[in-house]
Amino acid sequence: MEKILITGACGQIGTDLTFELRERYGNDNVVATDIKEPESEMKESGPFEFLDVMDAEKMHSLVKKYNITQIYHLAALLSGTAEKMPLKAWDINMQSLMNVLELGRTEKLNRIFWPSSIAVFGPSTPKQNTPQTCVMDPNTVYGISKLAGERWVQYYYEKYGVDTRSIRYPGLISYKAEPGGGTTDYAVEIFYEAIRKGEYTCFLKEDAALPMQFMPDAIKATIDLMEADSASLSVRSSYNVAGISFKPEEMVAEIKKHMPDLKVDYEPDFRQDIAESWPGSIDDTVAREDWSLKNEYDLERMTKVMLEEIGKKLK
Fold first, then answer.
1. 287: in domain
2. Which residue among 49, 202, 246, 282 is least enclosed by CB atoms within 10 Å?
């Protein structure tokens, strides 16, 4: 039986992934870790440990304590936050990855998952239907660290045989964890503010199209990739994964079908510049061919679920 450790388990991806992995592999076989206090459900459903991912010694001790065979390394500073503290973001995002990769090498872990992002693309990248292999010239700290990380995970696979797997996530939308400082987080914030206040001020322009993915699709894609036969994988840097590409104004129109009195203003901030450097849509043909990637949610279905679930949460 696999024994799994998740870093950043209290974050947007980690929250959903922890519960799904516990359901699949058994509660006791999935160790959630973070630097912050988890919600009671996470702490009560399986093992939880406080872990600063910069503490390589503590991470190593947890791998030994729980006989860990796989690590999902999710802890990172996201795009908007990273621009405010670039040196700290580089340090955390890169050194923590190296700590995990070294554990993969020295402890001969079965598999390591590390998330990349559409932030690896930049101004010279094709904006529409961005291919798996193309020019990548990120101009954000987050994107630079993710591009460097892609090179490192491929290096550890080719040089040391560490079975590394990765997805370039688009913007992720979830009702289980509130936003964490990303450029695409307007697509989560708007639901909370719509229900709380009936109004929202968007930090991107109304026509800033970006690729997004509903969290259930992202979690399924992540686990499907990790469970895929190694021989079927042709990419060891990071796979393109598309989802639903839409503009803020299109999301607003969909929400207004359920909440016609919603008021939305647009006041673009520094994140608009980040968004303009990213693709508007992604070509994920390689992932579909290698491990049968498939998304189930479109904008209409996702919006309905988000409003229902956040409505329950904020009662």
1. no
2. 49
User: What was the pLDDT predicted at 81?
Assistant: 87
pLDDT tens readout for residues 195-238: 999 999 999 999 999 999 999 999 999 999 999 999 999 999 99
Among 74, 79, 143, 142, residue whose Cα is nearest residue 112 = 74
The pair phi, psi for residue 4, each rounded to 5°, is -115, 135
Q: What pLDDT is recorded for position 177?
A: 72
Instruction: Kindly state whether residue 24 falls inside one of the protein's structural domains.
Output: yes
Q: Is 33 in the same domain as 119?
A: yes
Q: Kindly provide the b/e burial profile for residues 156-194, where b requires at least 16 CB atoms within 10 angstroms of the residue's own CB.
A: bbeeeebbbbbbbbbbbbbbbbebbbbbbbbbbebbbbb
Does any domain span residue 289? no
Host domain of residue 205: 172-212+244-280+297-313
Q: Do residue 250 and residue 263 come from a single domain?
A: yes
- CA gap 51, 33 in Å, rounded: 6
Q: Which two tokens stand for residue 282?
A: 């992604």
Residue 297 is among the residues annotated as catalytic for this protein: no
Predicted pLDDT at 86: 96
CATH number for the domain harbouring residue 305: 3.90.25.10
Below-50 pLDDT ranges, the chain? none
Using DSSP bridges, classify how beta strands 244-246 and 210-214 pair: parallel, antiparallel or unpaired: antiparallel
Do 146 and 12 fall into the same domain?
A: yes
Q: What is the pLDDT of residue 112?
A: 98
Catalytic residue chosen out of the listed positions 66, 72, 142, 239: 142
Q: Whole-prediction pTM value?
A: 0.92
